[in-house]
Amino acid sequence: MAGRGVAHKIGVLSKLCRLSNRSYFTYVREPSHFIKGKEPKWVTADKAFEALESGNLVFAQGAAATPITLLKAMTEHGKANKLKDVGVCHMHTEGHAPYTEPDCEGIFRSLSFFMGGNVRKAVADGRSDAIPIFLHEIPHLFTRDLLHPDIAVIHVSPPDQHGYCSLGTSVDCVRAALTKSKYIVAQVNKQMPRTFGDSLIHISHIDYAVNIDEPLPQHPSKKQDPVEMAIGKHIAENLVVDGATLQMGIGSIPDAVLSMLTNHKNLGIHTEMFSDGVVDLYYKGCITNNLKSKYHKGRFVVSFLIGTQKLYDFVDNNPAIEVLTVDYVNSTEVVASQNCMTAINSCIEVDLTGQVVSDSIGTRMYSGFGGQVDFIRGAAQAYDGKGKAIIALPSVTKKGESKIVNMIKPGAGVTTSRAHVHYVVTEHGIAYLFGKSLRQRAHALIQIAHPDHRAALEKAAFERLKVMPSP
């Protein structure tokens, strides 16, 4: 009887396995594990979205890896087939976003985890949405089953001799989205750099593949103005020490800081993203990653990249650069474990108590939380006690308005709270706010405001916080 019972159970299990069409090669959605006997369907871009239906959710890779050709084809497919209510979720994307145009209303609706300039108007007009979220938590939207993409649209390098493609310049939340997507559509581009880390995806996981040969979107560095150079000089000479591990983003202020670090030694890079300025500093011998903490010694750690061809050539097939998932790179615990972690972030405005606004101008959404709080908190909590959490900004806008304000604009959101802020830097100096009272903070911030606005700020500070004006 026992033998027949066992045989019956084995027979039932065997039948279930046949019914579920599972095998040892398909029971997990691990992108770096090959699927035996499966290959992508190679098609032209206009044929890549035959699986797309009304009501579907599409995930799109972002930054320099934005699959621009495919997203254009997706938009045309949606229009031609009169689809409705297709969601398109993504981080910051490059290039035109045609699916957000007025003629796509009702067909597509964009959902940004971090807004780029190409979707701001659509969000402001109510045709698109944005989620306020810390960068390190974006993968959780997929891994915790809050979002279930029907199709992931990605941009990869050609497969190597083992069949492995690379996600190239953007891993961030892509890997998490891929493991939850029903279909994967990829543009395979020989100009996409092949990167190491968490970027592997086997060609067998791709359902529809489109062969292209196109340069990646580029962000050339702009020449820094005297204000940005002064900010960079303050930070480089007073806050960055030899052996520091750096986090900084893209833009004129990070570039200005990097340009001032040419006499520093043994710098390390652990950052959500970097651009061309890091390449120059590396070849000067200033970046060695030699004094980083236990893990990733001697290597760059980054989650996505965007810059010029110089940057893409630098990272291509370079094993010293690890492009890792953003829930790891931006984890507060991981950041805090770095040697002399120095986090440099910018913002839109700071009020006299230290509240930092970075994602909105009044009620108008501008970007997103990004990794600012991830790194500000991680640097402040650094295990070696040597971390520095820095907010850097010009003292005035291009219109001459003060960026250090009595009160933030009505409707603006606080990105970094006044309890998180340590250093605030403008071209006029450095204000250290940690441990300072509200009145002490106001006094310190007024000292680094533009001289044209200090009198008005002193008057406002007295009315609000009873801060006595400077003698």
Automatic annotation (TrEMBL):
Family: Belongs to the acetyl-CoA hydrolase/transferase family.
Domain of life (superkingdom): Eukaryota
Keyword Transferase: yes
Acetyl-CoA hydrolase/transferase N-terminal domain span: 47-213
Segments crossing the lipid bilayer: none
Record organism: Cryptolaemus montrouzieri
Keywords: Transferase
Any Pfam family matching the protein: AcetylCoA_hydro
Residue ranges occupied by any Acetyl-CoA hydrolase/transferase C-terminal domain in the UniProt entry: 307-461
Name of the protein this chain belongs to: Acetyl-CoA hydrolase
Keyword Transferase: yes
Molecular function GO labels: transferase activity
